Amino acid sequence: MGSQISHIVEFIIGKIIELINNFLPMEFMNNPIMIRGLVQATWETIWMLLISGSIALVLGLVVGVIVTVTNKDGLLENKVLYFIFDKFINFFRAVPFVILIPLMMGLSRLLVGTATGTLGMIVTLVFGIIPFFARQVQSALADVDSGLIEASISMGDSPFQIITRVYLRESIPGLIRSISMTLVSALGLTAMAGQVGGGGLGAFAIRYGYQSQEVDATWTTVVIILLIVVIIESSANYFAKKLTH
Amino acid sequence: MEKVVLKHISKTFQVKEQDVHAVKDVSLQVEAGDIFGVIGFSGAGKSTLIRCVNLLERPTSGEVWVNGKNLLELPAKSLREERKKIGMIFQHFNLMRSRTVAQNIAYPLKGSGKSKVEIEAKVKELLELVELADKAKAYPSQLSGGQKQRVAIARALANDPSILLCDEATSALDPQTTQSILQLLKQVNEKLNVTIIIITHEMAVVKQICNRVAIMEAGVVVEQGNILDIFSNPQNQTTKNFINTTTSINEIYEMIEEENPLVKLEDDEIMLRLTYGSSNTDEPMMSELVNRFNLEFNIVFANVEILSSTPIGNLVVKLKGSETDRNAAVRYIKEQGVKVEVLN
Ligand SMILES: Nc1ncnc2c1ncn2[C@@H]1O[C@H](COP(=O)(O)OP(=O)(O)OP(=O)(O)O)[C@@H](O)[C@H]1O
Ligand SMILES: [Mg+2]
């Protein structure tokens, strides 16, 4: 099943590269090893983004909700919890991602058994993405009218119901935009993660574009990355608009 | 039977090390079937007080009894159950934007143990009550303010509450829409037997639908009682000011101030403001006065209003005649139970 999907994805990526090559004939495209490398790199980027993104979005959502409700005058005001999670976010946002990579090696080994390779990078990426997304969630939830919270308290809702039925449900358009911003910024992180063994388009561009001076290779990665960004942003816009009333 | 009893409620907010005493030792009793008005100027503590009724705000001290239960002593879960029996509507409606009108009304019914079919039937019934059956699938952003408040009322009634709290429910609406919302609230009170507490800063609202009223100023209830008594015999200056906002009688005071020729008096004239209570409005007092005393009457201003189906009269008259006759007339009027104020 997994390998089937990966075959389909590789086929699609191959088609896209072919298409680019039709409009912008590039010399290196005639080299089948390079093509294979490019397909592989794109696939690795998407894989890193999807796996680390989906884990980080879920955890980031939880952290974002926790800092929102435990904040002063929040639904479940709790100074200790707020302090811990707020500082957690600040700490991981403050540490530059390239420093986060060596920093997370131990934890990565502990959690997934390795600190290198695409898999090893996942843990680091997750910790890079969570704080960014958590802050986005926090600001999306802050936009929920406090009057709605009051109304639902007056209707006898429990704090958990208020979180799911008001905070999360009423901020869906805002959350979708947060997800899109987070994924785009996570794409940047995957490129960096690629340098230390994660593979992906970043590593590809460095190897061929920088070290071998193949300008075409660099441009091709740029186009593919742009394409991924456009897909993320336009689908987010579409759904956010559709769900805004 | 008492629906809501507030005993010595105080609420103090701490703002930057400073104490703000929003409500100070307020005691109130709201009887079943009342439409109880709480009126006061901005910052008087009205919202804080009404929010204490369903514990959106926990009072600093005092007791809150609703439907015979001491809310402050209930555990969280039972408190939530009690809140379902206390509907609330707000100045800014507080509808869920991502949900349709029907979904908004159904919101409090989720988890009530009702089946989907029962919920649908209830929503339909409520939509008909608030006359919005054709808007079931609309979103709040597509509604006018009055329609939004109707949806909010329907939502507040979904769990068949016996009490409805209204915090400035009509303050964001134009006069005509205000009328229709007030009529709807009156209907809810009469047909569904819902006890209503209304917060407002407009005496016109109180006058129109309340049967009892409390006047608040700086966190304190300065006067409360039956609306007829309050209107015909107000004691507190703030109360008087509020009552004056609802009649054009205020203009008399301005005219006197401006020395308008209409209210200018001869040496042998006095001007009186008479306020007729509920019991004496239909006595033929004026004709009696003319027959008994050798005085000339001149009506400057007259106004009769119907409060809780009882007329309340306001009259400004000039009396011309000898001092003895004038004094005797004033005494006579007072004996009839009419309130007399000598205007100059
Ligand atoms: N959460 C709060 N924190 C601090 N002070 C508050 C809070 N809520 C109300 N107050 C203060 O309490 C006082 C009474 O406020 P409240 O909202 O009850 O007045 P109100 O009579 O409803 O006024 P309005 O007609 O403007 O709505 C005000 O001085 C207000 O600043
Ligand atoms: Mg208020």
Structure description:
The complex is a heterodimer of chains A (245) and B (344). Chain A has helices at 2-23, 32-70, 79-94, 97-103, 105-112, 117-142, 146-154, 159-170, 172-198, 200-211, 215-242. Chain A is mostly helical. Chain A has a single domain (40-242), classed as Orthogonal Bundle (MetI-like fold). Chain A starts with a helix and ends with a helix. The model of chain A has no long low-confidence stretch (mean pLDDT 89). Chain B folds into 2 domains: 2-245, Rossmann fold (3-Layer(aba) Sandwich); 250-342, ACT domain (Alpha-Beta Plaits), CATH 3.30.70. Chain B has 12 helices and 14 strands. Chain B has helices at residues 46-53, 76-83, 101-106, 116-129, 145-156, 175-191, 203-209, 227-232, 237-245, 250-257, 285-292, 323-335, and strands at residues 2-15, 18-31, 35-40, 61-66, 69-70, 86-89, 163-167, 195-200, 212-217, 220-226, 269-276, 296-307, 310-320, 339-342. In chain B, the strands form 3 sheets. In chain B, strands 6-7-8-3-9-10 form a 6-stranded mixed β-sheet, sandwiched between helices. The structure holds adenosine-5'-triphosphate and magnesium ion. Magnesium ion binds at residues 46-47, 168 of chain B. The site of magnesium ion has 3 residues of chain B, from α1.
